[in-house]
Specification:
- The protein is mostly beta strands and 177 residues long.
- It has a single domain, classed as Glucose Permease (Domain IIA) (Distorted Sandwich).
- The protein is 10% helix and 30% strand.
- It has two helices and twelve strands.
- The strands form three sheets. Strands 2, 3, 5, 6, 7, 8, 10 and 11 form an eight-stranded antiparallel sheet that branches. Strands 1-12 form a two-stranded antiparallel ribbon. A two-stranded antiparallel ribbon has the order 4-9.
- It starts with a helix and ends with a strand.
- The chain binds zinc ion.
- The site of zinc ion has 5 residues, from loops.
Amino acid sequence: MRKMLQAAAVLVVCGSTSAFAATVVGPVCNPAAKVISTTYVSCTGGSHNALDVGGVACGDPLYAPLVGVYTYKLYGGCVNTCNGDTCNGGAGNYFVVTGANGWDFRLLHINTDANSTTKTCDRCLLGRVGGTGSATTPHVHMDNRQYGTRKTAWYLNAGTTCGSSASCGNVLGQPTL
Ligand SMILES: [Zn+2]
């Protein structure tokens, strides 16, 4: 126990000056929300170094998934759709949280509504589950990148696999920010 406490203290010190591990929970408060695609445990045949959360209806409320207060910057301009288009290079409407040392965390394919603005908040409403960009079914794509390269440790280390519950309250991963 003493070693665990010491490790926690070191993490807090590091977090004050550089990138740190954030916590991501399910972005949809619906027990039907599931992880539908990951990198190495693919449910759909794709391999894209990210988590896709779906199994829910297009138009379900989408919440900011990071536990704690973060700034979500909106990149919009796409017309809402549930089954894909080419808007924003395939990202559709999306939010980005910018961290230290080139890290960021993104939410793609969103349908926007009156809640969809750049905002700083803790698990607030960001919009709706949608299919803008390269999404053949409505889902939320989440990735953690450093200098634009998608990393997978944030959810693999947390044990998140395809089919696991992705509803709000379930920890899906710990991205670096
Ligand atoms: Zn995806």
